[in-house]
Amino acid sequence: MSKFNHKKILPRYKIIAYCIVLISIAVLAKAAYIGTVKRDYWMKVASRLKKDSVDVKPVRGNILSSDGQLMASSLPEYKMYMDFLAGGEVKDSLLMDKMDSICEGLHEIFPEQTAAQFRKNLEEGRAKKSRHWPIWKYRVDYNTYARVRQLPVFNLKGYKGGFHQEEFNARQHPFTSLASRTVGDLYGAKDSARYGLELSFDSVLRGEAGKMEKRMIKRRFIGLTQKEAVDGSDIVTTIDVQMQDIAERAVIDELKEINGQVGVAIVMDVPTGDIKAIVNMTKCADGQYREVKNNAVSDLLEPGSVFKTASVMVALDDGVVDTTKLINTGSGIVDMHGAKMKDHNWHKGGYGTISFARALEVSSNIGISRVIDEYYSKNPEKYVQGLQRIGIASDLNIPLVGASPPRIRMPKKNDKGQYVNWSKTALPWMSIGYETQIPPISTLTFYNAIANGGKMMRPRFVKAVERDGEVIRTFDPVVLRPQICSANTLTKVRTLLEHVVSRGTGKAAKSQLFKVAGKTGTAQISHGVSGYKSGAMKYLLSFVGFFPADNPRYSCIVCIQKVGHPASGGMSAKVFHNISEGIMAKDLKLDASDSQDSLSIVMPDVKNGNMLAASYVLNHLGIATNTSWDGSYAHGNPIWGAATRTKNSIDMTESPRYADDVVPNVMGMGARDAVFLLEKRGVKVTLVGRGKVSSQSLPAGHKIKKGETCVLRMS
């Protein structure tokens, strides 16, 4: 017989079941009560303990020059806030007790605002019980943030003192304004790209934001990563910092000299189409020149005489004319379908009868326009098609916002066979650079193709994308047109462009060190609907070409806008000359012995100063030196002394050494050594004249006093 008595056990199970049901009902009722009546209260509690899906900002990628130098990089900046409810009454009492010290400290860090103003601002935030009250309205760098963080109360942990911050990625440009419109910039308040490569490659540079959940554990927020942030990649541009600096200085110097309004210069690598330098300078209201707009890729202006090369190429390639064709340009003024066509020397009587080749060399408007009008007036479509064939009308798809393709009008007829957008004067004026709108970069791309054996390359601004030093994507050079014209035509055009510089209008671009080929251009800039006769005359002065002409490495265009006379393409040719020689010189490496004149027997004059450095140079020049010491300039400390010239050698002696608090004897030294010795001891130096030091206002052996200035007279 079973010992299990179900009559006694089952009632017990029922009691347990009833208890479980009642407890469940109570739990559900409590949950409903919390979810409805107490919902707002517990949501506030949760908000203090947990923050869902907080964005984690990635670090924006760098923009690098062609040789890896930083052109744009991200550094942290901070906005600082105060939570007046954090820390309770204990913090609040401490805050009021330390308020004067805090405000005085803030005034010392930010002198633009008084301590009283800081106090008023903080007391206003305290009165409003704000949890996110701005301490300073602007972003600050890390060093400034660290100084504020050391002030009383602010130096407590966030949940105790209430001080907290927002971190931003601030864009820094180590080379300041170099190529600034091309490199680009960010909207500071939004951390979003504004223009330039920053905007064009924003998706690459920006990276991907991460997600983090923050929970309060033991009175501290602990971050729990939901999704890792992916930092942005770096982009490697084609820009050469040295070339950019050379081009920028050359443009600014000429703009200042001629009082120009806008200056543009672009340097392109011939075989690849790489943009090595791009300058866009505009005169601002304060008289300074800055990069305001990327005129090089966006300015749609009539190019003027630099366009004549395209007209000559079309005519030669179509076989309608040869360079030997003679043209009567008259006295420099001719009637062209009821309008006056003038050459630049019309007031001197013009060029008379010249060849087609000579017309390009001297930039004769009449010579070029008469040939084009003679052979294409009945079929202007063929001429425009020729321009399209040689690539000057191509859309280059420049990766910069605001870039514009060329605008070259195609003649159109109505149903009756009449031109609806064309006149008899359109063709001759188009042939010399009017009636078209072409940005400087398109003109340069065409001339670069001439230098590149007829192969037209797309301008390249970025050549690679890198992540952690490894290349993850490359942008190879792109060929737009394998051949813009026949080899015979190309040879003739290149010869003509060399003649423009050697014996034509482009002599200012000529170099004594290498051959230059190119074309000048001077165009009047239209004042919109007012045409060319409204107010002061404004000109576009251009020169575009390549160097060395016999083995082209670089092509370059310079465009200057100025008001009034004098105005000629030679002004831009001068800038081209300075840029080309600067670029070629930067690659020139010579040994010190190259400066020795084998025919000279005269011993050089050696200034007093660092004898170890002087000995190094003299030895490399093959000149004997007698010294009383041993040592190497590359590895030794300076040896200060004097040099005496003899017939066959230079005798060098070491001078007495002076203490660090005593003025040394710098007589007979060059400016570099003299300034080094004095400033090393804390003495300020003023130089008068040039040459060697002939007198010093503070005598040798003088005890140095703080803040003293020594005047050095040079002769």
Describe the protein's architecture and organization.
Strands 2, 3, 4, 5, 6, 11, 22 and 23 form an eight-stranded mixed sheet that branches. α11 runs antiparallel to α20 (569-586), α13 packs parallel to α15 and α13 (308-318) packs antiparallel against α19 (487-503). The model has no long low-confidence stretch (mean pLDDT 85). The protein has 22 helices and 34 strands. Helices cover 33% and strands 25% of the residues. It is an alpha+beta fold and 715 residues long. A hairpin with a 2-residue loop joins β22 (462-467) and β23.
**What's the average pLDDT?**
85
Tell me roughly what share of residues is in helical segments: 25-40%
Query: What low-confidence regions span 5 or more consecutive residues with pLDDT below 50?
Result: none
- Termini gap: 134 Å
